[in-house]
Design a protein that fits this description.
The chain is α/β, with parallel strands linked by helices. It has six helices and seven strands, in the order H-E-H-E-H-E-H-E-H-E-E-H-E. Strands 1, 2, 3, 4, 5, 6 and 7 form a seven-stranded parallel beta sheet that branches.
Length: 197
């Protein structure tokens, strides 16, 4: 910006007294829909059904795009700031939760609210989750991500009970299709409610 900067002193944070233009340039890059060749999968789980889905989706992504950096994070265990940092760095994100009391887990709900406030730009997304009875969770995640500005590349994927061999294969296919969509392919993933054992 051709300003004679000698120092940047924010009200909180690091004081930049050496090459302050470097942080200005970096900030402009971060603020301009920043992304790396990375996909982040964030999930919460009750009885490991949604975890198994996340792992199967991850295998599908890795088989379709071995060069993509993949992060698999548990919203109930991993630090929220670390999760948000990985989402910031990603070109695409998948979020999964079991359906609990006609909704989603509190760990995912809280994270989605934080995501909404950060207003990420030009990132693709999809939702998934397991359920026992009603199955609203994945659709609620889908709607929240869409309202937060993400480009939704598929309908949400829901699996009844624990994934069996067939539904694990469906999750892997979902991951492969998501990887292609994240890479810019016109193939669209098709999510749906699936029955398991």
């Amino acid at each position: 910006m051709n300003l004679p900067l000698n120092m940047i002193c924010p009200s909180h944070g690091i004081i930049w007294d050496q090459d302050p233009g470097a942080i200005v340039r970096q900030y402009l890059e971060w603020a301009d829909a920043y992304q790396e060749n990375q996909i982040t999968i964030v999930y919460d789980t009750m009885w490991n059904s949604t975890r198994q889905m996340a792992q199967a989706i991850a295998r599908g992504i890795e088989s379709a795009d071995p060069d993509v950096k993949l992060k698999l994070m548990n919203a109930a265990k991993d630090d929220k700031n670390d999760i948000l940092t990985e989402i910031f760095s990603s070109k695409a994100v998948l979020v999964g939760s079991p359906t609990i009391n006609y909704g989603i887990s509190h760990a995912i709900a809280g994270l989605l609210e934080m995501i909404r406030g950060l207003r990420f730009k030009k990132k693709k997304a999809a939702a998934f989750g397991s359920y026992g009875w009603s199955g609203e969770g994945p659709k609620q995640i889908h709607d929240h991500l869409q309202k937060s500005g993400f480009e939704m590349v598929s309908d949400p994927l829901g699996i009844l009970w624990n994934p069996d061999r067939d539904t694990v294969a469906d999750c892997e296919a979902f991951g492969r299709q998501f990887a292609m969509a994240a890479a810019g392919s016109t193939a669209e993933t098709t999510g749906r409610q699936l029955s398991g054992n």
